[in-house]
Amino acid sequence: MEVLSLKEVVEAVGGTLLQGNLEGSIQGVSTNSKEIKEGELFVPIIGERVDAHRFIKGAFELGAAATFTSHPLEEVEVVEGKAYIKVGDCLEAMQALASYYRSKFEIPVIGVTGSVGKTTTKEMIAAALETRYQVLKTAGNMNSQVGLPLTLFRIEKQHEVAVIEMGMSMEGEMDNLVKMARPTIAVMTNIGVSHIGQLGSRENIRKEKTNLINGFVEYKKGSLYVNGNDGLLHEIISHKNKEMTIDLSEKTNQALEVAELYSFGTKEDARCYAKDIHSAGKTTTFTYVSEVEGTKQEEAVTLQVLGEHNVMNACVALGVAAELGIPAEVAKEGLYHYQPIAMRGQMEEVDGVTIIDDSYNSSPDSMKSGLNVLLAMDNKRVFAVFADVLELGEESRELHYQVGEYIVALAKEGKRIDGLITIGTEAKAISDAVCDHGLDMIVKHCDNNDKAYEAIEGMKQPGDAYLIKGSRGMHTDEIVAKLKKK
């Protein structure tokens, strides 16, 4: 983070300096009192269980230069000589400061959202752009109301572009993120059923996520890339072309009027698309086709990952890179070296068995993508290990059941996995669907991760591959850790 004076901080958040010197400064922002660094600002957020104001003294002992406080001085521990800035709400103040800090940098900011694949898409876009630019990208999945401002504070003078992951689960959250990040280029990967329990329908999810472009109204320009293979996202194109009407906010409609709208995918009507997709071993090749100044151009691309979803991610990465002046022949080198980050599809061989660790999170759509990855592998046998997808609301059983039906449909096409292990209450519907349709394969349902691990241990053979996936709250990484210790 570039240094900010306390005077700037106070003015940016509309706060009041209760103690300390306005000539002081900060060189970072942290919400974690145990990991705060010398010279940083501590933001004590009040959570459901803990009021972090109790940790202010500890933050100062580790070198914090200042703290926000929504409590009066008499209600917190006061350290003499340290700066205390009174604000109405510490989280809102941090977000206001992040918005101010972002405004100091006139660089392209790529905002990435979607129900599935945000992190992978963000990583691929960054990999393509890093062939030419100094890139700041979201670390891990720091994409929330707390994580995104902390990401913005990491922008420094050497950065020439930023790739920011933006996640939401409730109405109004995306618009708030946009006010901070102000993306100049927006990427929407898909509209799935994640958080449908909170938002009620995929159309409502689309409406909320499309708020990603609201900052274009201020800029009076911007680029939006949508997955043309996703029916609900493709409708945005028809909406902009006045061929149909969909429910978007008034501000989003205004932003769409000034936006350049591009599609990506595997269909030939997309601005940038993939054809001739082939998988062999752990490598995928395809031909990337794009339209440049009215002329179709093609480029052979190789990825060291599997799955059509990764091909789609690569297409939008190449499209964004081209917009920022990097030709596909250069950007594709960055994509060739891309590897999944922890718990996002990492593959590791242990005693002749391939473990695909996709345990960070899950959705019905990403489970289906994972099945296609398994089927593209050249292992002797392939198994899916699926735990509950959470936050699906009343449609949970039906959506899980549809994953099982997808397994059945693949088998009817001759694309058969060798076995299925499900874990938890909701995921049992996946097993039920497979059994209800009489599919002849190994099917086991387990109440918990320990029993799932035992099931895998009891059946695994050299040459097998196991895809392990579930919502974060199901902690399926515990299974991965046990398997890797063997």
Structural notes for this entry:
The chain is an alpha/beta fold and 486 residues long. It has three domains: 86 residues, 3-Layer(aba) Sandwich (Udp-n-acetylmuramoylalanyl-d-glutamate--2,6- Diaminopimelate Ligase, Chain: A, domain 1); 232 residues, UDP-N-acetylmuramoyl-L-alanine:D-glutamate ligase (3-Layer(aba) Sandwich); 140 residues, Alpha-Beta Complex (Protein-Tyrosine Phosphatase, Chain A), CATH 3.90.190.20. It is 36% helix and 23% strand. The chain has 18 helices and 22 strands. The chain has a nine-stranded mixed beta sheet with strand order 9-10-8-11-12-13-14-15-16, sandwiched between helices. The two termini are 42 Å apart. The mean pLDDT is 95.
Please summarize what this structure is.
The protein is built from 18 helices and 22 strands. The protein has helices at residues 6-13, 56-61, 90-102, 118-129, 147-152, 173-181, 196-199, 202-209, 216-219, 231-240, 250-258, 308-323, 328-336, 364-376, 396-412, 428-436, 449-459, 477-485, and strands at residues 4-5, 16-19, 25-26, 29-30, 41-42, 66-69, 83-86, 109-113, 135-137, 161-165, 185-188, 223-227, 260-265, 272-280, 283-292, 295-303, 346-350, 353-358, 381-387, 419-423, 442-446, 464-469.
> Structurally, how many domains make up the residues?
3
Fraction of residues in H or I helices: 25-40%
| Rg of Cα set | 24 Å
CATH superfamily of the largest domain: Mur-like, catalytic domain
> What share of the residues does DSSP label as strand, in percent?
15-25%
Structural class by helix and strand composition: alpha/beta
